[in-house]
């Protein structure tokens, strides 16, 4: 069963709705004791990464999250929390991945936020993307991106620069796009995560 | 490459879609959720629900509808109509809406854009602008184009961007309902001037109009209602033709 880590950032209605459609069991993690009930975790998040990190620190769950050994999926800002640092609020993050979250440079051609459906190119084969054709479109909406790094990038997307659409290290996975809003391939990704 | 988005717009009154719909075997053409599901299966990239309810019960009805849509639809959707304050937006966000669209309320109180962007992030805030030509000027209009203001549309859009709009939904009232094509001249002027996505609206009558709006203005998305609702344009056909014109679109192969 998936534990959704609740630290006060972002609404999770669409995420839980998607899990319900897919018949994937889930519950909520509010404190350290709650972690024991679950065999995998999702870290959600929307909005401002610096503010989200601040809330996460206030939740008292930081050390527990960093020590997790079970499969854990960060989504959107929940992904950015796993990096070392974000330019959004010049904030130190969890540093599970020693890479940076940076702001897109806006222009009339590459507008910010990066909003809409873009191709996700799988850099390596991984069960998270099982049964998802390489180059499938996923729904993005974000102004900050995680730098491309071959050591951690599971899938990449091009938008003015090549960035990490998905990263992976040990039991930690993360996606910048919104699987819960990305049609049937987004649902496939959530199903895949529930089976990892 | 980021694809161009095709967005059907559904008018909702008291929780039911209005305007006739006769394009598929719907059990209930007035059910916004069933209609939304059909569009998502056809390959719509996003949906806009415009609440035209005039009753005091509107917020409760709309929140219930938003929840139903979020439960069953796996693509992003926007809610517009009657959002006047942070509390309205908060209720819709918590019910699963991806974005809200504000129009008249932003014109009457431009600081609302700043407040919403600060509270929820710019990606949550679409500023919808209805424009009509008056002499040689494009002026912002309210209430579906019925009430003229003295605001210059172009300047207002730049102000909305400065204040924190994450996207602009620009409807040309001169073109809306004509099925004569989008207002490509003005859309291009706006699109070239802003650094946030622009959704074109008003005037779609044929597939070629969509080809034209993307080729001539490079806007990020095109919105339409009746051509989709009446089955005059089917989204898979539209996307296939856009693809042949080298317009990047997300194709759905079921």
Our count of helices of chain A gives 5
Percent helix range of chain A:
10-25%
Q: Using the alpha-carbon principal axes, give the shape of chain A.
A: globular
What's the helix-strand series of chain A? EHEEHHEHEEEEEEEEEEH
Which pair of chains has the greatest number of interface residues, and how are they split between the two chains?
A-B, 37 and 36 residues
Largest sheet of chain B: 8 strands, parallel, barrel
Estimate what percentage of residues of chain B fall within beta strands. 15-25%
Rounded mean pLDDT score of chain B = 91
The parts of chain B where pLDDT drops under 50 for at least 5 residues are none
Shape of chain B: globular
How does this structure look, described?
- The complex is a heterodimer of chains A (196) and B (254).
- Chain A is an alpha/beta fold and 196 residues long.
- Helices cover 21% and strands 32% of the residues of chain A.
- Chain A has helices at residues 13-21, 49-59, 62-66, 77-80, 183-195, and strands at residues 2-5, 26-29, 40-43, 72-75, 85-86, 91-92, 100-103, 114-119, 121-122, 137-142, 144-147, 153-159, 161-169, 172-175.
- In chain A, strands 1, 2, 3, 4, 5, 6, 7, 9, 11, 12, 13 and 14 form a twelve-stranded mixed sheet that branches. In chain A, strands 8-10 form a two-stranded antiparallel sheet.
- With 254 residues, chain B is of the alpha/beta class.
- In chain B, strand 4 (77-80), helix 3 and strand 5 (99-102) form a beta-alpha-beta unit.
- The longest helix of chain B has 15 residues, at 58-72.
- Chain A binds chain B through residues 11, 13-14, 17-18, 20-21, 46-48, 106-108, 111-119, 137, 139, 141-143, 158-159, 178, 180-184, 186-187, and chain B through 1-3, 5, 40, 45-46, 67, 70-72, 74-76, 93-96, 98, 120-123, 166-167, 191-197, 220-221, 250, 252.
